[in-house]
Amino acid sequence: MIGVVLPAHLRTLAQVDGEVELQVEGQATQRSVLDALEARYPMLRGTIRDHAAQERRAFLRFFGCQQDLSHEPPDAPLPDAVAMGAEPFLIVGAMAGG
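The structure assignment produced for this chain is given below.
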């Protein structure tokens, strides 16, 4: 099981409290985790990734094991601690402005 921590606005949309536990088939990658997340919570489709290009939305970042994974290829393996469920996969809302 992989734990996923969503930002508050996406937790509200998905109607969940706290960390989400997901069963991911095959290798744990950003793509496989997000596919499992969107399959379980269809209302999140298009909120984390663009519908057509499947690219990360601009104001969201991905973290695991205190590493910014946002610019990693979507099919790159996640850190072992995330894949084994010891550390969560974090989806964080970025802030902008001045």
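Interim note for the steering committee: The mean pLDDT is 93. The helical segments are 8-14, 30-40, 80-83.
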